[in-house]
Request: fold
Amino acid sequence: MITCDDLRPMLAGYVDGQLSALEAEAVAAHLEQCGRCRQILRDQQQVQYVLDADRPPEVADDRWEEIGKRLRAELEGTGERIVLKTRSRIETLLTSPPPALQDVEPAPPARPTEPPSPAAPLPPTTFKSPAVRPAARLRLGEARLRRGKARFVWVAHAIGALAAALLIALGLAPLLLQGPSSTVVQAPAIEPDTLARRNDVVIMEVQTMAPNYNVILYAGDAADVAAVWVVPTDS
Amino acid sequence: MGGAAKRDRAAEREAQRDTRAVERLKEGDAGALDELFRRHRDAAYRIAYRLVGNREDALDVVQEAFIHVLRGIQAFRGQSSFRTWLYRIVTHAALDYRRWRAMRKTESLEAEAAPAASAHRGARTPQKEAADKDLHRAIEKAMTNISEKNRAALILFAVEGMSYREVAAVLSISVGTVMSRIFNARQRLRELLASEIG
Reply:
């Protein structure tokens, strides 16, 4: 016996003609007996009717042409690079379900903090591979991301953690070896070699004291180093 | 049945055209970019508009979504149709954009009302126009008070006319979940628009 609770979400499918014949029959039979569900069905239809009747404002052709020109410039690498306000989730969207959308009803925005400048991009919570033009795509990182992305993520995390520990250990080693009474010894200066720079992303290589490992840093321009990969120097 | 089959065939042909254009775009063909942009910009705009609530932001979202497409096209392997992939990018870009907007505390939406009204066609009385404008505003406001995931499902179906199956593919959820999200979104809208639609 189908109950109202079982059936209610199916009312949407019923209104939208998205149920199988069998499901639609079951819903129709229930509706004959249940006034409350009939009312909800009418509500669903009414909202859909209102949405159908309400159209977004039209966009003039010249606005589309303007955007089309910018996109063409982006493709051809001419013109100024556009600073994005939204994050690239290309890798995520290609391989796995997108990050969960927020389930909560939105609260009114209340942030008394100073707003970022108009051109400021969203601060990334995690830093994916930098978005670079196809022609200038960098060998490193890009090739790695393409291969077995899902598997690579946890390996990268593990290696990143190892690299961070290694860097810390290398920095602290002289202090620990010489003891507290000795004069303070500066950690060896790390002088990254810049491998490439693409506007807001700098990719650097850092030589470490470990013979087989170098560290590759990807850094945004907002002073946030976002990802660390260690690769064998002979690879 | 005949109509549905015809629609399916048309969708299939469009998907094939997209696939060919994507291959050309990967080789840097600007004509392919123009073709994909022209074919999908209106739909992308409608989705973005319902998610961000005003025309200027929606156009910005469309531009950003296509830039994400350009920067990521080499990685696109056709696991889904280009349309599904693009709508997914537009949906997420629009939601990101809203968060960025909220951080900037820039209120946005009301200025759109006049151009929105002028876009409606047909001879209408001033009273009817005013009522439409009020309803339009009320819908925009109500939309911002629905949870993101319910709203995204409703918009992809109700505004873009995707099937539940397509919405499920775009949002990477099951068809059953699509159905319950759309149901919940409409119920919430019904509550929020109670005074406008009786």
